[in-house]
Amino acid sequence: MFERKLKALGYLEWDKVNGNNTQHFRKVIVWLEDQKIRHYTIEDRQKLRDITSSEWPKTFEKYCNDVDCPITKNEIDQLEWFIGYAIWLEFGDDCQKYQQVIGRKAKDVKKEMKVPSIKSTNPLDNLDFDSDAFKNGINSIAKLLNVPKHSDHLITLQACSKLVCNKLNTDAIKQSNSAAYAKNKSLTKTIVGPSFNMGDGMLDNAAKGLALLYIQDLRNLQTKINETIVAVQNITANPKTDTKLGKVGR
Question: Is 242 exposed, middle or buried (CB count within 10 Å of its CB: 0-12, 13-18, 19+)?
């Protein structure tokens, strides 16, 4: 499991390391300290280099504390941490060199990637939604529909879309032609639950508008709930029975 990392670090016997072998473990630790980590001076590494000594575990424990290794048990996990730490130090010594290599590999990957080109037949996919022509078109539609302009032209477009969907569909047009609708279409004459009397007509109308929007959201939610119930009932109320699977008796 350490082969590729040790090979990248330049360990000669990278393909022969056995993490469960104590001597292999100690030998790799000493090599990492000598060649990559270099936390101790050359003189202070003598005890760590004596991998056959009975005192080596204590020496290694002190070494772990000195380099702030957070793993205190399991030699494989400790070896993994020290190899990763050595790679991190190696990268920090010459990060520009490795960044150039990473950049070149990323470019090569992009060149090798073959992304199929898909030509869309939808004219909306070719529109530039931030162009001046598109913004001017939205403003013209908003002016025609008497929709207030927002600083974000896309929000203005959403408002126009809602108005068209809710007020210019077939049912809404038929209702708007009725006498009752024409009589009560004014917001000042609309009764919404408790009366609003805040001493200002504009505030009253704003409160009524918010209440109407809230009622509309509740109606939309109830409609979706009803549609979900109907869909579930269609599945559970009319199960398809395979009589061939039936059994008589035990």
Answer: exposed
Average the pLDDT over 84-112 and give the result: 63
Q: Count the neighbouring beta carbons within 10 Å of the beta carbon of residue 190.
A: 13
Q: How far apart are CA 86 and CA 95, in angstroms?
A: 14
What value does the mean pLDDT take over residues 11-40? 84
What do you get for the CA distance between the two ends of the chain, in Å? 56
Residue-wise burial string across 152-184, b where 16 or more C-beta atoms lie within 10 A, e elsewhere: ebeebbebbeeeeeeeeeeeeeeeeeeeeeeee
Q: Encoding tokens for residue 124?
A: 């909306």
CA distance 73 to 163: 67
Rounded Cα distance between 78 and 19, Å, is: 10
* Residue for token pair 């505030």: 203
Beta carbons of 95 and 84 less than 8 angstroms apart: no
More confident residue, 25 or 195: 25
Tokens of 159: 């408002």
